[in-house]
Write a structure and sequence with these properties.
phosphoprotein; alpha/beta; ATP binding; Heat Shock Protein 90; 5-stranded antiparallel β-sheet; Rossmann fold
């Protein structure tokens, strides 16, 4: 006996036979073929067999069916049993050698057709084993077919209702093989029109050869690419395409998932234009603020030129330099590509140039500016500029009254979120600083107010040589 067949284990067989001698012969044959013992159930009619199957159908491995029974003739009984118990294999045993009946029985789902008196125990048992194995294989195939069908349904569901266009096309000729509803909606073509097109027909300025070259270069990597497509009405569409290349039914195909980036790109362009408009407006605001402040500074300069009192002239010059320090911040922002911050080095150089010019200082008082490439946000630059202006003005007016030469310096550095600024000179210092501090001069008041505004730590060293201001704050 074939080893493949022996692997099948038979537990219980239902014999539907009204002839007691034939039933007994089946029992003898089966015990002879399988000494371990196959349990049998007997039913003399189809009706009785259906009752047995109703109560014990899950226990039956195979049915041996006679076609000539008291309550059925021919294939009627077979069809009745098969209809209610399609998973149980049926071996037909008949005393009639009718090839047309045998063929019809096998085509209707019978596993074998045996002629009574023309088989022995081994042939009967082998027929039963094969019937069980074939039915088992058939059940597995049906289950696999069901799973494949269910998977295909799920795929079609995902494919058809995907929010993005999806196109399946032939890799070689680029003819469209399948597409979803969203593809029709986005491009404006109906399904039949697209199925008679090439995928490359949707592109503007990209050839089929370039597409295949791209896919060959990135085969298996599924890297998104962006192309301009054309709708049926001729409207340009910016599409991001992710392509999956694989074999389907012996053909090389590509599944292209497309994302319509047209509105996103339009929104991006609109936002960029809006940002540019706002930057232009902000530049114009800085320009006008700078102009207004410079007009104020010019008026103060004019007033100082006509003032008869030296003290009034000095106060007007001080105020003029303070206003100029503010206008200079707006001027730097107006000329900067970055409207949020200014370069500290350029700002300080121009601020000191103005002070040296206002107070008529020559090369006898040198300047050292060591601030590297540091930048300051506008909300920090204004108070820092005014503080430097006050300190520099103080040095010009008082530090070098007893000597003709000297040096004014500004140093700045930043790191770990801390900005450190040091401004000072090598003049005579402020020997009577405690009395000056008690009086709280306008310049010193401004420096303290501005340092509080920055939440900065302020340290003033007035011992000769020189005066040094150290300012430190978080940024």
């Amino acid at each position: 006996m074939n080893a493949r067949v022996v692997s099948v284990r038979v537990k219980q067989i239902l014999v539907v036979e009204d002839n007691e001698d034939d039933s007994r012969l089946f029992e003898i044959f089966l015990k002879e073929a399988d000494p371990s013992g196959v349990r049998l159930k007997h039913s003399p009619t189809v009706a009785d067999a259906l009752e047995v199957l109703k109560d014990h159908g899950e226990e039956i491995d195979c049915i041996i069916l006679d076609l000539t029974l008291p309550d059925s003739f021919g294939l009627d009984g077979f069809e009745a049993i098969k209809k209610t118990n399609p998973k149980i294999p049926i071996v037909i045993c008949s005393g009639t050698q009718d090839e047309s009946v045998a063929m019809e029985a096998l085509q209707s789902g019978g596993q074998d057709y045996l002629i009574k008196g023309k088989f022995d125990s081994h042939l009967l048992f082998r027929s039963i084993l094969y019937a069980i194995e074939r039915q088992d294989m058939l059940s597995k195939l049906e289950e696999q077919a069901f799973l494949i069908k269910e998977n295909e349904k799920r795929y079609r569901l995902i494919f058809e209702h995907n929010p993005h266009p999806i196109v399946l096309y032939n890799y070689e000729c680029e003819s469209v093989l399948d597409l979803n509803q969203e593809t029709e909606r986005i491009y404006g073509y109906d399904r039949e029109e697209l199925l008679h097109m090439k995928f490359s027909d949707l592109f503007i300025g990209t050839s089929s050869g370039e597409r295949r070259q791209y896919l060959a270069l990135h085969n298996g990597k599924n890297i998104p690419e962006t192309h301009v497509h054309r709708s049926k009405e001729g409207t340009p569409l910016l599409m991001e395409i992710t392509s999956y290349r694989f074999q389907l039914e012996g053909k090389e195909v590509v599944l292209a998932i497309l994302v319509d980036m047209t509105k996103w790109k339009q929104s991006e362009d609109s936002l960029i234009q809006s940002l540019r408009d706002k930057e232009a407006l902000l530049q114009e605001i800085h320009h006008r603020v700078k102009n207004n402040l410079q007009i104020m500074a010019s008026l103060l300069n004019l007033q100082a030129n006509y003032a008869k009192n030296k003290e009034v002239t000095r106060e007007l010059r001080d105020t003029e330099s303070r206003i100029y320090s503010m206008s200079l911040v707006h001027n730097e922002l107006y000329n900067s590509k970055n409207l949020a911050e200014i370069g500290l080095g350029s700002y300080v150089d121009k601020l000191l140039d103005n002070l040296w010019n206002v107070y008529g200082i020559g090369a006898e008082i040198g300047r050292v500016v060591d601030v590297g490439n540091l930048s300051l946000a506008v909300e920090k630059a204004l108070p820092i500029g005014m503080m430097i202006n006050e300190i520099a003005t103080n040095s010009i007016k008082y530090a070098y009254s007893e000597k003709k030469k000297g040096q004014f310096y500004i140093k700045a550095k930043s790191g770990n979120g801390i900005f450190h600024l040091e401004v000072g000179d090598d003049g005579k210092g402020i020997p009577d600083y405690p009395q000056i501090e008690a009086k709280e001069t306008l310049g010193l008041q401004l420096i303290r107010i501005l340092s509080k505004q920055l939440k900065a730590k302020l340290d003033i060293n007035t011992s000769a040589p020189g005066t040094r201001f150290q300012i430190e704050f978080s940024y």
